[in-house]
Design a protein that fits this description.
It is built from five helices and no strands. It has about 160 residues and is mainly alpha-helical.
């Protein structure tokens, strides 16, 4: 029969509570799992974009990068030098995408009353005329947004 360990060893054992390192590891693992699943979903969406119009290969690469980051978070492994550089580049690209999305949203918000007025005028002429005008306005709006994005890219290159 084995003897019980001395009572001083039992007393030194720390309880696992909310602030314990084990709960921090669990939250890191949970974050890693979420990133892995999200990365896989983004990569899967990228596969369909290879056939459909869109940046399929870029989306696949982004999904794989997110899944890789999730794997690091799950395992608790420190990123390598290359991974740190890729993470920094991804952060910069994400910030740039957010800025461009904000610009586009402001443009759409600014142009919305004009578009609504034209559609309302066309609606007074009948449903068919309104549908035709709406389609023409949608094409014109998408061309205007594309032109503004193209101009913004050219301004950034100079």
């Amino acid at each position: 029969m084995q003897a019980d360990p001395p009572s001083e060893h039992r007393a030194s054992k720390k309880p696992s509570g909310a602030g314990s390192p084990s709960s921090q590891i669990d939250s890191g693992k949970a974050k890693g799992v979420v990133q892995i699943v999200a990365g896989a979903a983004v990569a899967a969406a990228g596969v369909s974009l290879c056939v459909l119009p869109g940046p399929g290969l870029a989306v696949i690469a982004g999904g794989v990068a997110l899944a890789s980051k999730g794997q690091r978070a799950y395992s608790g492994r420190e990123p390598t030098k290359v991974e740190r550089k890729l993470d920094a580049a991804a952060e910069k690209l994400g910030d740039a995408a957010k800025r461009e999305a904000a610009k586009t949203a402001r443009t759409v918000a600014r142009e919305a009353p004009v578009v609504a007025e034209k559609v309302a005028r066309a609606a007074g002429k009948g449903v068919v005329a309104a549908a035709k005008a709406g389609g023409k306005l949608a094409v014109a709006g998408s061309k205007a947004v594309a032109r503004k994005l193209r101009d913004a890219r050219h301004d950034g290159v100079r």
